[in-house]
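INFO  loader      accepted 1 record
INFO  loader      residues=366
INFO  predictor   begin
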Amino acid sequence: MHTEPGGDVSRQPTERLFNLDYLRGAAAFSIMIYHYFSWSYGKYDANTAMSRIGVYGVSLFYILSGLTLYHVYFNKLDASTSGLTDFFKKRFFRIYPLMWLVIILNLMVTIRVPQAQKLLLNLSGLFGFVSWDSYYAVGLWSIGNELVFYVFFPVFVLLMKFSRPAMVILGIMVLALYVYFAFYRLSPDLTLSEQWRDYVNPLNQVFLFMSGFFMGHFFKSQKVNPLIVLTILLIGLAVFVFYPATGDRISLVTGIPRIIFTVVCLMICFSFFKLKIPLPHYLHHPLTKLGESSYSVYLLHPIIWKLFYYFSRGSREYLSIEIPQWILITVAGITSLYVSYLVYMKYEKYFQRLGRKNFNLPLKFR
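INFO  predictor   done
INFO  writer      dumping C-alpha cells
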C-alpha cells in the first residue's frame, strides 16, 4: 500500500494500516456468520448482537473504505487526467473481476436466466447509480454503493485541497441526506425489508464513507493515548451490544438509534485506526490474511452456502440423512474462508497487479 506523504509518491511507501485489515476481516467474518445463522434459524430481533452485526457490519466497511482510500490516495490524487485515470483504473481492477465472477457463479447456482437489461446493469456496475436494489448476488448492493462512492472520492479530495468552503457545504449536504433518510424517508412503522430500496440507496450510505474520509484527514497525524483509544473501543462495543432497541431491524436504522449506532461504528473504526498494539505473529498473520481476503469472503460465502444447502437437502431427500445445522454452518464457514483465500491469492491479486501496470496509453491520456 503506497501513498504520498510528500515528494515522490512512487518511492515513498507509507505505513500499512494492519489494524484496519484486522477490523475489515472481522467485519466480513461477522457478516458471514450472521447470514449463516439467520439462514439456518430465521431472522434475529433488533435487540440481538447478531442482528446489529448484520446491519452495521457493512457500515464498518463504508467507513473503512473512506479512511483507507484517504490514506492511500489523498496525496497522490490530483486534477490531472493521469491522476484520475490511475485511481479509477486501480479501482476497476480491484472491484470488477471478482464482482463479475460472483454474478456468474450466482446465476449458475441459482439456475436463473438473467434479464438482459438487469444483467447489463450488474456487469457494468451501473445498477449502483440507477437501480441500486437490482442486483444478482447477496451483498452486491453494497458494492454498487461503493462504485458510487468512488465517483464522490476524487471530488472530496480536490475540494479538500483547493476549496475548503465548498467541501464544508458538500459535507453539510451529505449530512442532511443522512438525517433525511434516518428521520423522514425510512419509517419505523414498516419493516426494513419493505423499505429495502430506500435503505440501500447510496445517498443513504455516503455519509459513512465521507466520515471515514474525514477521520483520515483530521486524525492522520494525531497521536492519542492508547488507554483513551482502548476506552473508546470498549465503550463503543458496549453500546453496540446493550443499547436498547427491539423489534424489526428498522429500529436500528431510523431515528436516534441510527445516530447512536453510526457514532459507535465511528468509535470502533477510530479505535482500530489509532490503537497500534503489535500482535504476535500467530495472530497477526491469520488476521491480516482474513482482512486481505475480506472482499472474497463477503461475496463468496452466500454462494458456498447455497451449494452446501443443496447438498444437505439432497442428503435428506435421497439418503434420509439429516445433517445437523451446526455442522453445516461450521463446514460451510471453513470452506468459505479457505476458498476465499485461494480466490484472493490466485484471482484477485492477479487483477490487482494488472491495475498497477502502465498500459502505455497515448500521450494525451497520460
